[in-house]
Request: fold
Amino acid sequence: MIQFSTPLIELKNTKRFLPKLKKLGIETVKDLLWHFPFRYEDFSNIVAIKDLKIGQYATVQGVIQSIKMRRTWKRRMFIIEALIGDDTGSIRAVWFNQRFLIMMLKKNSRLNLAGKITEAPEGGLVMSHPVFEILTYKKEKEGLSHTGRVVPIYPETKGLTSKGIRFLIKPLIDNMEEIEDFLPKEIIEKQNIFNINKAIQLVHFPEKIEEAKEAKKRFAFEDLFFLQLNNLRQRMKLAQEMAYSSELSVDEIKELLSEIPFELTYSQKKSLWEILQDLKKPHPMSRLLQGDVGSGKTIVAILAALVLAKDGKQTAFMAPTEVLAKQHFETFKKFFKKFDKGTGLITGSMVKVFYGDGLESDIKKIDLIKKIENSEIKIVFGTHALIQKYVKFKDLALVIIDEQHRFGVKQRSELLKNQSSEAVPHLLSMSATPIPRTLSLTVFGDLDLSIIDELPKGRKEIITKIVAPVNRDKAYAFIRGQVKKGRQVFVICPRIEPQTQMDADETQINADEMNAFYPRLSALSNLRKSVLLWENAKMVKEEYEKLSQKVFPDLRVGMMHGKMKAKEKNEAMKNFNEHKTDILVATSVIEVGVDVPNASIMMIEDADKFGLAQLYQFRGRVGRGEYQSFCFLFTESGSKSTHHRLRSLIEAKNGFELAEKDLAIRGPGEFLGEEQTGIPDLAMKAVRNPELVKSSRQAAESILKNDSELEKYPLLKKRLESFQQEVHLE
Ligand code: ADP
Ligand code: MG
Reply:
């Protein structure tokens, strides 16, 4: 019997694969068993050679009638060619550059060949690179792992093929000790899912594809269930913590509202009200404020901060970028000129204070930190700089996080830890990504939701056009006309697909598929990310050069990308903000939430490469001022479905509608972006299945209702802890 925790090094026939397995993060039997296939091929039907059809995936059983190796003199390739025959006919099989096969495959041996049937250029049927299994008497009866059955296909790494992985896993499955299931029996029964042993066995070697699906469902359920357990326990824990409770009065709020030059929309008022109700409670709020780009979330958050400032309490307002932090600070100064209780800004390169005298002033970082520490500053805007250890708040009562999906859960808890009093601060997250209900239940299930689903009055609808290559010059001419009228333009460069040379080298399969079922490869994906950053910067430079030299030599063009230093980025943004440039070329990482009312054109290159939700966000950068705004979606694609998809951007009523569509088309991984907080990928896929989300939540509730500490479920408790570590939810 093989034990679960056995290091692979102790198994005889795995030794030579160890370095390669390690590359995939696989070191123990358990790791290997959890290396799931990402798809299956059904070779279960052994087909008579005369019945083979072009395009079919099949297993052929026969005898090697002849086999030879030759060498192409031009490309110096070795070609092995065999003729396989059964009672009904014969078929050719070819392999390239696999010289060793000539030693393994002998004339007259019986074997199974599995693969796709194609037509040879010179006519006749051929199987190229088929998987084979030499048949012995025993093997014919049982134990086939590569042919004559449903065959699992694994994420591969260089030098370790799917076949190799099957070779390693099959004996493990056959000799594995029974694993005790950490999911309680009652749940397995109620959900009608496989127990862990069955699931592991059938995820690797199902008899039928259906069984593999069921097995994957079990694992998806498991991940969702743990997410829900985690969420619910988080909530229960918070409900036991103490927080500052404000005794705000209606008059005070009215007074604050009278200072802003516009009336809040109905949903802004409603959201504010929900937040204020939470702030009255003696337990910490945990709320997500969702609203389309430009729907006015900032002001709602600031109002909450002001209410607390009246009580002498502090708020930390954290934004994902310097540009945004600065912008929030500016907005604040603009609307609340008279606020004299101390406002600060702290980022990597800027430290400022403001005391309501209409002027801001620079200050040493250390001095601002002191003022925060003794509560002389009530509202502090900033970036990550805010959550550094050395920043301590005396009276922190509220933490606001803008565009929160760009922060890890970990940073969030970091901020919550970083304060001296006993009370836990309230938390308000804001996101412009309209997140479909199922997703917010799982990914942000520990948060309450407030939604702003309307835009302030008087906004003009943004005219959105799909621009085919033939109309490019017309679009340029139009843009020039708008700039001459005094408007400004954002240009978003095409996104580099995460399909770099490096990917191609490291893996032989589609990166998305790999990510979907193999989260541990995240180290690889980090590498990929840095390559992407660099490549994206290159794209921006090229586009910048094209636009500034060839297309719009008469206009002022600026650029901004992720590889620039913070200072340079600020400079570029400032120039655009102050209308010293007309056109800003940027990557898709263009700072979310940037507010330049005079910018009225959003031009997106290769729009089809982006998700709908992302395009929607880009478009939201314009249409913020009094001018008619435009969004141009450039695409080279002539594909009908692409145009259909892009058109939904023109037709959808609001971001939520688009989000649902996007989720359905592309799945949540793409939808939320790579930076998402390490939610297991199977669960991410499962999020598309609302039933599973619902039942996982109910299951988690039913377990926690009677046993919130999971004392009756020690295995479950242990597994939950390691799950939390794996996905960094701790
Ligand atoms: P987002 O929700 O994208 O963060 P902002 O808070 O940046 O949106 O608001 C976008 C713009 O709309 C800002 O210039 C803000 O001052 C303005 N705004 C917010 N609420 C209203 C309102 N009720 N009426 C008019 N303008 C508003
Ligand atoms: Mg915003």
